[in-house]
Amino acid sequence: MLRLLALTVCGGFLFGMSLTANAAEKIVITGSSTVAPLVAEIGKRFEEQNPDVRIDVQTGGSSRGINDARSGLANIGMASRSLKDEEKDLKGTAIARDGIGIILNAANMVRSLTDQQIVDIFLGKITDWSAVGGKAGPITVVNKADGRSTLELFLNHFKLKASDIKAQVIIGDNQQGIKTVAGNPNAIGYVSVGTAEFEAGQGTSVKLLSMNGIPATVENIQNGSFPLARPLTLVTKDEPSGVVRAFIDFAQSAAVHDLVKEQFFVPVLP
After folding, report:
1. What is the CATH T-level fold of the domain 2-97+231-267, as seen in this structure?
2. How far apart are CA 261 and CA 270, in angstroms?
3. Residues of CATH 3.40.190.10 domain(s) within the chain?
4. What gap in Å lies between CA 26 and CA 23, rounded to an integer?
5. Contacts with 230 (C-beta within 8 Å, 6 or more apart), sequence order
6. pLDDT digits (tens, 9 = 90+) for 69-104
7. Contact 198, 207 (CB under 8 A)
8. Fewer CB within 10 A of the end CB, N or C, for the chain?
9. What would the pLDDT profile of 106-160 be if each residue is shown by its tens digit?
10. In this model, does residue 21 exceed pLDDT 80?
């Protein structure tokens, strides 16, 4: 048997603990495309400290993560939201916080939209940018695919039904949304605030709009003022144990807060 060194947090301090693991033990983690890049980086660091463990991260949306964790197809599911009431049979652990922001192409003249204007755009009641102070041109609505928690949170916040949205483009993950809006001066979409803030900082042609007058920034997610925020959650079927417990403790610990911040998310403490 091989010895495994894992880290856990107690009272804000890291302590090492010895666990037993089989050779080349693999943890399969599936779900949210928002959470996946962060978990992949955490997984690399965990593997460095535990060379006999392999972390396999796969995307497919929060619904896949929930379903795979419940059915046993994955050791851990990833969800970019809290667990719902009907999912309380599962165990959820928040490892970071994120927000959802409205994005436009950086060349778009529009600087802000009211909640009602956003609703009317996504319902197809406003179809030209000139109606909201922009340059004349048909609005391209970019919406998230079913099964994505970003879609669910967007719908809940604006009190919309998925069937009522009039979208010209349907996308899956954040990168698809950013690429679509960056390539179309008339597009509007919504993605992870952290991802969009990072991409804009790298020169990608997108910008985040304020909500209720509050800028969509990681700082405002951290201080709790941004209205559309969410936890990034690791999900297991039962109370985790062994190497899975060690990984979840590690993912929630101060040992990876630098990775959380590099992904433009907000760390949480256990």
Report:
1. D-Maltodextrin-Binding Protein; domain 2 (3.40.190)
2. 16
3. 2-97+231-267, 98-222
4. 9
5. 80, 81, 82, 97, 98, 99, 100, 149, 153
6. 999 999 999 999 999 999 999 999 999 998 899 999
7. no
8. N
9. 999 999 999 999 999 999 999 999 999 999 999 999 999 987 878 888 998 999 9
10. no
